Amino acid sequence: MNLCLQLLFTLISLHAGVWGKSVCSWQDVLDHLNLTANRDKLTMTRPTRDWTTPTVVYLDVLVYAILSVQEKSQTFIPYVWVTTSWANELLSWDPADFCGIHQVSVPRELLWKPDLFLYETMEKGEGTGSPFVLLKHDGTVVTDGNQKVMSMCAMDVHKFPFDTQKCTLSFSSVIHPDNEIQLVPASNSSRATQNALEIMLSQGEWEFINVTVHTDKLIFQELGSWDKVVYTITIRRAPLLHVLTFILPILFLLVLDLASFFMPDTRGDKLAFKVTVLLAMSVLLLILTDTLPCKPSQTPLIAVYVIVTFAFMLLSVLETILVAYLTERGATESAGTPQGHGAGGGTRDHHSEGLHLTSDEGNGKSVLRGCICEANGVHQQEALPLTGRPDPYEGSEGNPTTHLLRLILQELQRGVQRPTQEHGTSRHHHTMARSINTTFFLLYLLSISLFLILLFLNWVYW
Length: 462
Hints:
Blueprint: H1 2-23, H2 26-33, H3 39-44, E1 55-70, E2 75-87, E3 103-107, E4 116-118, E5 126-127, E6 132-136, E7 140-148, E8 151-152, E9 164-173, E10 181-185, H4 189-199, E11 206-220, E12 224-237, H5 240-259, H6 269-291, H7 301-334, E13 351-360, E14 365-374, E15 379-385, H8 400-460
Helix pairs in contact: 5-6, 5-7, 6-7, 7-8
């Protein structure tokens, strides 16, 4: 009989337990916690029984997209998932009393939340956070949500486009000092980096490297100190696009400028070609102006690359102008000097001499006359007949025939010496132009090669 009663009570208990499980719900937990009636109490103050007990807030930031990095405005725009958790000492229940329910979701507006803010933010971020928070049986509250963050980032563009940037996201409470809210990172650096690498969705032209996490103190005199958790995100630029669209075109223009040294210096084609290359270089400078910040901390190497290359091209144009001037001057002098100038370019001030062949109509003889034109315009002529027997007595020193022969020899000598001297002057200018062109080309090639090698080493390795 006792055994039968014991079995009956056991069956009744099991039936009651099964029936109790079937009627358990989250609403039963919420009714037990009386959230509706205690709404003001649970939202207006920090949820602790003793005000001297600090609330420990655990923060976890997960980076899963790099939307934009703007060098001109020094802004960094990532997409992050922020998770925070803390203990609410006023809310708890025993899961055994509610069919093993360990957690429930409640609207955000019903519970107190820590007033965390981001120091580097520039404007309110866009996010799609959940309207609910998760409440666990021991009073732990967990809230999370994704957010587009527009933050400030001091960028070092010295090695652009082979640069690596480090941008920080610093979280802290607004009004609660560290004796009221203790901010603690939920994940260390290695775990945060691994999680970000696993779920990274978009990086754009940047490559995500790692995330480092550390805590810091924000101290204000006479006000106290605040806990701060700092996430440092390291990213590296993918330089392929900038190399193809900017660095290589400038290098190609430089090669064209070097090749122009082998062009002939005729009709100004070489100078026109070099000026065209210089104008194309000026267009690329406008692209660089739109990319780099107005006041960088250090002079970007790409700016040095462009300015020095531009300066080399400018010197090349000036050298071409000099060579063209020397060549044109030599060509002008080789065409002949004006009448009345000697081989050395000086003017004969005293007299000019010449020979003229005339005929004497009186006796029918041709006469060779030597004309001496004085500076005052007076002409003196001496005649030598070209027919008849020579006078045996015409050999003396004062004879007009001897003087006239001497004039003939002097004219012949001047006719031979003048083209030789003019050709020597023209050849001298051409030789000087060729020497200047060759020397400048060798110095130009050596200087630009040394500059590019040092710049590349500083760009990539140093």
